[in-house]
Amino acid sequence: MDRFDRIFELNRILQAARHPVSRRRLEEDLECSRATVKRLIEEMRLFLNAPIVYDRTFNGYSYAQDEGEMYQLPGLWFNASELYALLSMQQLLEQVQPGLLGSHLQPFRRQIEQLLNRQHAGGEQITKRIRILQAAARSAGNHFSNLATAIALRKRLRLDYYSRSLDQSTVREISPQRLTHYRDNWYLDAWCHLRMGLRTFALDAIIESAVVEKKARDINEDELDHHYQSAYGIFSGQSDKIAVLHFTAERARWVAKEQWHPCQESRWLEDGRYELCIPYHNPAELIMDILKYGPDVEVISPAELRESVINRIVSMSEIYQSA
């Protein structure tokens, strides 16, 4: 922990403490010596106008009662991990729609790099040291700005949307609720006024978009979470089935550390295999994820899911048998 991080952490400790904090505890939490603690306190008092006082009764330090609750570190102040996270987030946004936020974020990015240079040597190199890899990502198209604007202003959108499953496009009016980045692709959760229900739209399938000067219909967070997070994967709807999967002992070393769904249940079997139980509604994505594990997983139940996986395996084998 360096000087800037220690100042950041010292401020956090003093703001969170109900009683004065002893010097010994500060030494332990800040991982430094008694002399360093005293120097940090003096620097904060002199250069950052921190209202730090010493309490003889508790033999510790705190912010002055009349000023401490209102005190904040001056200016833009982040610790190193937060700065790195901001730069990573910027890289992710740049991949959405190249140039979308470049002019707005570039000054902020330079400020972050300057802060990193002051706090940590080599800050200007951090963007070269962070990689965000994408697999099978589809372009988000040129509509991210319209969608974000409509969400922020709570306006409706008119979409010309292409359905890959039906191989046709429809024009519809929607009330956007939130953007979701899932498995390297972007989706829009929205209330569809054509279908009169919640739907998920892939950004890469939007042909045209326009903000409509009508107030968007608001759906509360609990209802959105219930609809979109109850079942497995990006496919929405209330979960009504439980998939029971058995993984081989070898594959379990990886799967046991994975979260497939927030409400999953799991247990180790006596022979070393791993059982994973997942709630789902639409099986399409779940079947794809099961198949990628090949012979390392077996669907135990329900019967219709097991049958669907068997049929896909048979169809795959027929392709290679005829070759």
Structural overview:
- It is a single chain.
- With 323 residues, the chain is an alpha+beta fold.
- It folds into four domains: 68 residues, Arc Repressor Mutant, subunit A; 50 residues, no CATH class; 85 residues, Calcium binding protein CcbP, beta-barrel domain (SH3 type barrels, Roll), CATH 2.30.30.530; 81 residues, Alpha-Beta Plaits (2-Layer Sandwich), CATH 3.30.70.
- The chain has eleven helices and twelve strands.
- The strands form three sheets. It has a five-stranded antiparallel beta sheet with strand order 7-6-5-4-8, sandwiched between helices.
- β4 and β5 form a beta hairpin.
- α4 packs antiparallel against α5.
- The longest helix has 19 residues.
- The mean pLDDT is 84.
Layout: helices, strands, pairs:
Layout: H1 3-16, E1 21-22, H2 23-30, H3 34-47, E2 52-55, E3 60-63, H4 80-94, H5 102-119, H6 126-129, H7 144-153, E4 155-163, E5 168-182, E6 185-192, E7 197-202, E8 206-215, H8 221-229, E9 241-247, H9 249-255, E10 265-268, E11 274-280, H10 284-291, E12 297-301, H11 303-321
Helix pairs in contact: 4-5
